[in-house]
Amino acid sequence: MFHRKQFQIEFKKEAYDEDDIEDLVEPSLSPALSTTPATSVASMSSVASNARLNKQPRLDMAFFNQKSFQDGGSKASDLTNRLLFMIVKDNMPFQIVENEGFKAYTKGLCPLFKLPSRKTVTSLIEEKYQVLSNMIKTQLSTVEHLSLTTDVWTDPLNTKSFLGITGHFVLNEEHKSVTIGVTELDERHTSRKVASEDCRRLGNKEREYNSGRF
User: Fold this and answer.
1) Sign (positive or negative) of CA dihedral 203, 207, 208, 214
2) How far is CA 65 from each of CA 40, 70, 103, 173, rounded to the nearest angstrom?
3) Cβ atoms 127, 93 nearer than 8 A
4) Which helix (H) or strand (E) holds 181?
């Protein structure tokens, strides 16, 4: 029985010549759209065209987007604030905005954004400092208890030593820490020198804040 079936299969294969096999194969390779009505093809083309048009920005929106990157624009202000935050947070020099590599990097990220000059960065950071300083003064004038810690460290780049004073307090059930002041130590930072500098700095801050908390 097995040999008989095998013989029948081989016989059926030999019953077709090469032309017949090609005739059987070619129709299966014809494009599926060949049987699609012309109206369906036109409809699909219209939908694709409308989708492309919807993706294209309107002229007024493109103009508004470009204008927002100019000085005073919303996106320019946001990017400038982020730049100031990066400089302060990462303790970077103000002159980074003049470095060719940083300029190229920024232009690659956002070609429409114009980096502020070093002078502008200095002025903006001073303004930010005044705003934050006034905010901290207001907070310190309302707290009941304030703890102070001091720290001495040396800058590895120029081997200068600094003394920092940090205030710790609780405001609205949230612990907060703020830098009260930082000063350079010109002499050897012995315990007597550190204590003397602490008293001087705290006295200055008491007069500056006029809060009586120090």
Assistant:
1) positive
2) 38, 10, 21, 42
3) no
4) strand 174-185
Distance of CA 156 to the CA centre of its chain: 28
CA 146 to chain centre: 35
- Write the pLDDT tens digit of every residue in 55-110: 565 655 554 455 555 666 678 889 999 999 999 999 899 999 999 999 999 999 88
| Cα→Cα distances 41→28, 44, 48, Å | 21, 5, 11
Instruction: Provide CB contacts within 8 A for 122, sequence distance 6+.
Output: 94
The two structure tokens encoding residue 120: 């502008």
Termini Cα distance of the chain: 108
State how far the Cα of 140 lies from the Cα of 66, in Å rounded to an integer: 43
Residue pair 185/201 in contact (Cβ under 8 Å)? The answer is no
Question: Which residues touch 71 (CB under 8 Å, ≥6 apart)?
Answer: 114
